[in-house]
């Protein structure tokens, strides 16, 4: 009988250890791994309070985890890609307008994929952060720049970073890269 109690106690201790080590994927290290730069942003917004930041991210995950992105048709993908190229071309003559247009285009694209409507930027960017945490920072920066925050170089950087989210969204699950306009090379001097 004593042996059975000892074995049972060992099993409980091992199970508890495994749960603590691997079972908390929605907390601490799991959230840090899942959200990457968004985790650090949340901690900074909560003045270093990791517990509050992790609570916010856990709630965000619960709200938006089940969102299922709808795929774009090839025609929609081509149209969005052409529109992004026009935004980039506009940057040289009107950087402020270009970043505002990029912000609006990303909001529309996200909405068309099934994310919350872009009328509520916070809710839409939170949902995007659950599914595209590595790229959503570019959207946040272009949104701020579109409201007039930053100089021309900051707007250019924001547009370049937002392109990362655009590329991920416009290809949403397809294996092929975004087809770019051959007259608009990446190194053409614009964003």
UniProtKB/TrEMBL annotation:
Residues 45-76, 171-191 are annotated as: Disordered. It comes from the Bacteria. Residues 177-191 have a biased composition (Basic and acidic residues). This is Secreted protein. It comes from Streptomyces castrisilvae.
């Amino acid at each position: 009988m004593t042996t059975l109690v000892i074995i049972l106690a060992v099993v409980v201790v091992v199970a508890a250890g495994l749960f603590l080590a691997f079972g908390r994927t929605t907390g601490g290290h799991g959230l840090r791994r899942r959200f990457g730069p968004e985790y650090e942003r949340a901690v900074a917004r909560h003045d270093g309070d990791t517990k509050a930041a992790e609570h916010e991210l856990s709630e965000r995950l619960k709200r938006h985890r089940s969102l299922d992105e709808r795929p774009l048709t090839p025609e929609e993908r081509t149209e969005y890609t052409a529109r992004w190229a026009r935004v980039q071309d506009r940057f040289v003559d009107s950087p402020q307008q270009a970043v505002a247009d990029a912000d609006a285009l990303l909001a529309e694209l996200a909405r068309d994929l099934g994310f919350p409507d872009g009328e509520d930027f916070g809710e839409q960017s939170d949902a995007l952060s659950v599914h595209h945490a590595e790229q959503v920072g570019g959207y946040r920066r272009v949104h701020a720049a579109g409201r007039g925050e930053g100089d021309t170089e900051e707007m250019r950087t924001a547009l370049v970073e937002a392109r990362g989210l655009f590329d991920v969204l416009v290809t949403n699950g397809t294996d092929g890269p975004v087809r770019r306009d051959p007259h608009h090379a990446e190194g053409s001097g614009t964003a």
